[in-house]
Amino acid sequence: MTDAHLDPNRRHDAVLLFDVLDGNPNGDPDAGNQPRVDVETGQGLVTDVSLKRKVRDQIPLIRPDEPRYKIFVEADTALNTNIIRAFTATGTPVSKKTTPDQRRIVQEWLCNEFFDVRMFGGVVGTGDGNAGRIRGPLQITFARSIDRVLVQGHGITRITQTTEKDISEGGESTEMGSKWTVHYGLYRAHIHYSASRGIQTGVTSEDLAIFWQTLTNLFEHNRASGRGEMDTKGLYAFTHDDVYGRARASQLFNRITIKPLTTTPRTINDYKIDVVEAEYSGVTLTTLVG
Q1: Where are the domains of the chain?
Q2: If the chain, 290 residues long, is cut into consecutive pieces of 10 residues, what is the mean pLDDT of each piece?
Q3: What is the pTM of this model?
């Protein structure tokens, strides 16, 4: 029997908790790469794009060079190149004006070829070949810190100059730089899986198992000095017993409450995390991390 949270024919809603210590979890390029914050509340933010990137980066490590587990949104690879590949592989004429049947054939090939298309969907109608848009079953929200975060800039120096000219003409022996950190923050994101869309894109139990695995190890293979220490601290999956669902996601998410035990939290132990075990009819809670 398939574990409930691995069944692609059921709806899933999940809560992801992760923290950062002395690092920048997601820099904002419009603000000098400072950690993203809600300007009204001071809570830290991490975008859904950042979280999906970390999922994508792990797939080649978990399933290297395996069919069905290629990544569509990848560095140094043009999206149009993969779209044209799909047209060619299916024998579909490359055109901006395609019929619904032609788009369906190309979309099925893309879903079967690329893990992230199958799970997250994507716009595949760019360039000369118009395959339309694939609506993926998985959606991840922005992550938001439980409390306000303190963002601090740090001046740094290095003893090596960038160019010979800097040494000969500038006469400087060091160069100045800066980096931004959050001293500590506990972040919460929500995840939604639509079984009806998963059936359309061909999601399997193995796909879901790999997805949960990537969230468990979200930062283990994505280390960087600028991010400090980041770690998954909680992953709670609510599984409905059918495609449509037995309760609203907000009702389920309210069963997980997080309260600070001090005014300046510095570890996960400075929070009280309560998970209400009483279940809604037709909904099963699986604690994957926590």
Answers
A1: 1-47+142-153+181-290, 64-135
A2: 90 98 96 95 98 97 95 90 95 94 97 98 90 97 97 85 71 75 97 98 98 97 90 97 95 96 96 85 94
A3: 0.93
> How far is CA 216 from each of CA 23, 209, 229, 249, 273, rounded to the nearest angstrom?
20, 11, 15, 21, 18
